[in-house]
Amino acid sequence: MLKIRKLQKKDIKEIIKIMTGFPDAYSKDYISSTRRGSIKWILSYILSCDDIFNSESFVLLSNDKIIGHIAYMKDIRSFEGKVYELRALAIDKEFQGKGYGKRLIKYIENELRKIKTEIIWMQTGGKDEVLYYEKLGYKLLCEWENYWGDGKSRYVMLKNLKYATAKSRQKFNN
Known about the structure:
- There is one protein chain.
- This protein is an alpha+beta fold.
- The protein has one domain (about 1-174): Aminopeptidase (3-Layer(aba) Sandwich).
- The protein is about 30% helix and about 30% strand.
- The protein is built from six helices and seven strands, in the order βαααβββαβαββα.
- A seven-stranded mixed beta sheet has the order 1-2-3-4-5-7-6, with helices on both faces.
- Strand 2 and strand 3 form a beta hairpin.
- The longest helix is centred in the middle third of the chain and has 15 residues, at about 100-115.
């Protein structure tokens, strides 16, 4: 049985374990560091702020086992509070290919629509991921070459929620 719930402090260790399984997308330092912006910092920050207009984090459970995670954070550059960044999407490798990532993305987009979000953006680390997000209605905004200094690119993806038609919203929510 699948269930989505808000992040709890006890979940952080399991989320980090899942994310370390994707070294091409998340460097070990980016995951476990406590410096601002790292995954561990983001999860701790979200737990401390308790404000859905600022950030929120959700886990996907299968029979009470954490198999996925997704978060959003308000873009601190403001844009009148209507722009959010999608963060830390990860599905345990054992559970991939079953639509669980799509389910988490749809869930978080619905949560963001409730608070009148206009734009969601994210970074991703591979061309396969770019194609995946494009199928979900995201557009490639730019490529940052050699982002981490390792020769690999990062891609910035964007989705406009404000101007999605009612028909496409209905289709996306099904």
